[in-house]
Design brief:
By secondary structure, this protein is an alpha/beta fold. It is built from eight helices and eight strands. The chain has a single domain, classed as 3-Layer(aba) Sandwich (Rossmann fold). The protein has an eight-stranded mixed sheet, with helices on both faces. α2 crosses α3 and α2 packs parallel to α5. This is Alpha/beta hydrolase.
Length: 270
C-alpha cells in the first residue's frame, strides 16, 4: 500500500500479491466510507489480481476546505453547484489525468481499459465518467449509488426536510448527470461495460427508484450475448452505510466476484 499523488489527485494504491488484470479505480462517498482510507478498509479486494487505486474526492480529505463548516455552507447555499458539481463531476473530470498517471507508473498498459467502482456520490461520479467516455471502462460496480443530481437532491430533501430551489442551470446539470437519461452513452462499446448495480433494500439515504430506473434504461442496450454484463442486485437488509460484519461479507463477495468474473485481459500483466 502506498499513498501517492496522481495528476493532483490524492490516492492510495494497493498492490496484490499477483497482478494479472488492469487496475480498478474506486471512489468513496460523502458519508462512511468518506475517504480513500475508509474505502480501502471496506473493500481491500486482495483476491482480485488487479492494482486497486482508491481516489480522494475533491473537497474531501487532503483537499478539504480549511474551514470545517465550508462544505455544509456550500450544501445549504446550493447543493448542486456548490457541492455536487465540483465534487461529483469534478472527480469524473479528473479520471483521464489519473489514467495517464497510471500509464506512466506502469499500472495501466496501452490499450487497456480500467475497472471502476463508486459508492454513493462516488457512484454518480462513476456513471458520469462512463457517460462521458473519456476513459475506457471495461467493468464497473455501483454500490448504494446516487444516479445523478436529481437523486442526490431527493436524498438531501428527505434528510433535511427542506426543499431545493431548482433553476435553469441546475436542471441542466441534473440532465447532464442523469444516469438513466444517458443510458445509451453509458452502454457504448463492443461489448458494453460489464456493470453491476448493488443497492441495499434498507438504504434510507437513497431509495431504490433511481437504480431501478437506471437498470430499466440500460437493459435494452444489453441484449443477446451481452445480457449477462448488466445486473441489478437488491440486497435485503443492507443499509446505506455498511458496517456490520455480515453486510461487509456480502458486499465484498458481490463486488470482488464481479471484478473477478469480468476482469479484462486477465492473462495480461501490465
Amino acid at each position: 500500500m502506498s499513498e501517492v499523488d496522481l495528476a493532483g489527485v490524492p490516492a492510495i494504491i494497493r498492490v496484490p500479491a499477483r497482478v494479472a488484470a488492469p487496475p480498478i479505480v474506486l471512489w468513496h462517498g460523502f458519508g462512511p466510507p468518506a475517504s480513500e482510507e475508509a474505502l480501502m478498509v471496506l473493500l481491500p479486494m486482495d483476491d482480485v489480481p488487479a492494482v486497486k487505486v482508491y481516489l480522494g474526492l475533491p473537497l474531501f480529505g487532503k483537499r478539504a476546505p480549511a474551514d470545517p463548516s465550508e462544505l455544509a455552507r456550500r450544501q445549504a447555499e446550493n447543493l448542486a453547484t456548490g457541492v455536487f458539481e465540483p465534487v461529483v463531476l469534478g472527480a469524473a473530470r479528473e479520471l483521464p489525468g489519473v489514467a495517464d498517471a497510471l500509464r506512466k507508473l506502469g499500472c495501466l498498459a496501452p490499450g487497456q481499459g480500467i475497472g471502476l467502482f463508486g459508492f454513493s456520490a462516488g457512484g454518480a461520479a462513476a456513471l458520469y465518467a462512463l457517460a462521458e467516455g473519456e476513459v475506457t471502462v471495461e467493468s464497473a460496480v455501483l454500490l448504494n449509488a446516487s444516479t445523478g443530481l436529481g437523486a442526490s437532491v431527493a436524498a438531501y430533501e428527505r434528510a433535511s426536510g427542506g426543499s431545493f430551489g431548482w433553476t435553469a442551470e441546475t436542471r441542466a446539470l441534473a440532465r447532464r448527470s442523469d444516469g438513466a437519461g444517458r443510458a445509451a452513452e453509458i452502454a457504448r462499446g463492443e461489448p458494453p461495460p460489464a456493470l453491476l448495480i448493488v443497492h441495499g433494500a434498507a438504504d434510507a439515504m437513497l431509495d431504490d427508484a433511481g437504480v431501478r430506473g437506471l437498470h430499466r434504461a440500460l437493459a435494452p442496450h444489453y441484449d443477446g450475448d451481452d445480457a449477462g454484463r448488466l445486473r441489478l442486485e437488491m440486497v435485503p437488509g443492507l443499509p446505506h452505510a455498511i458496517r456490520a460484519p455480515e453486510d461487509l461479507a456480502r458486499v465484498r463477495s458481490l463486488v470482488g466476484g464481479w471484478f473477478l468474473r469480468h476482469a479484462p485481459g486477465a492473462s495480461r500483466r501490465p
